[in-house]
């Protein structure tokens, strides 16, 4: 006799484990400059907004970006997965990324907001939104360089003020006692 409840739990556990490997595989592919492996982590019809869609277009977009830096180390430091259905899920991934850019060693604090889709039995990214807290050379304080000395985020990094709960938490308080760079201030 088949225990359907147990079988369903096992499938959900296996799905979570498979999804949890995606950011790790992504980090390895970036650091090894394995563009084929990296592109294969996304759904075949991945949408790239105004840049089109599909893995080949994704390859054309990412390859020059991977040449902005020489060495890199992407460290996955946390991952939350929420199964939405048998073939869809979403999650948030925290990452500390380090990049060699000329004589600089840029450290970034990143959160990825992901959507996942199961395609032919394999979990893949169907959307990946990269959001930054800061990017600064290892010799710099993030506050001293406006949280973006690499200049890769137009308008500056979107976190933490991109979280509505964070904004609501600080709205009634003067944060100048705990930060030299409150949101909206310029360095």
UniProtKB/TrEMBL annotation:
SUPFAM superfamilies in UniProt: NTF2-like
InterPro entries: NTF2-like_dom_sf, SnoaL-like
Gene3D superfamilies cross-referenced by the UniProt entry: 3.10.450.50
Domain SnoaL-like: 12-129
Domain of life: Bacteria
Pfam family, one: SnoaL_4
Name by which UniProt lists this protein: Nuclear transport factor 2 family protein
Organism: Nocardioides immobilis
Phylogenetic classification of the source organism: Bacteria, Bacillati, Actinomycetota, Actinomycetes, Propionibacteriales
């Amino acid at each position: 006799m088949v225990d359907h409840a147990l079988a369903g739990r096992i499938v959900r556990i296996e799905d979570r484990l498979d999804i949890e490997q995606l950011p790790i595989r992504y980090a390895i592919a970036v650091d090894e400059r394995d563009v084929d492996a990296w592109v294969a982590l996304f759904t075949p019809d991945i949408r790239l907004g105004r840049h089109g869609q599909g893995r080949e277009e994704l390859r054309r977009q990412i390859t020059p970006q991977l040449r902005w830096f020489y060495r890199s180390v992407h460290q996955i430091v946390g991952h939350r997965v929420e199964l939405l259905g048998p073939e869809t899920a979403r999650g948030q991934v925290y990452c500390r990324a380090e990049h060699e850019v000329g004589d600089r060693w840029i450290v970034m604090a990143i959160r990825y907001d992901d959507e996942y889709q199961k395609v032919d039995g394999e979990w893949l990214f169907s959307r990946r939104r990269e959001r930054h807290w800061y990017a600064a050379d290892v010799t710099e304080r993030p506050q001293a360089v406006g949280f973006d000395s690499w200049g890769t985020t137009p308008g500056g990094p979107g976190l933490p003020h991109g979280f509505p709960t964070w904004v609501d938490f600080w709205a009634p308080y003067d944060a100048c006692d705990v930060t030299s760079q409150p949101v909206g201030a310029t360095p």
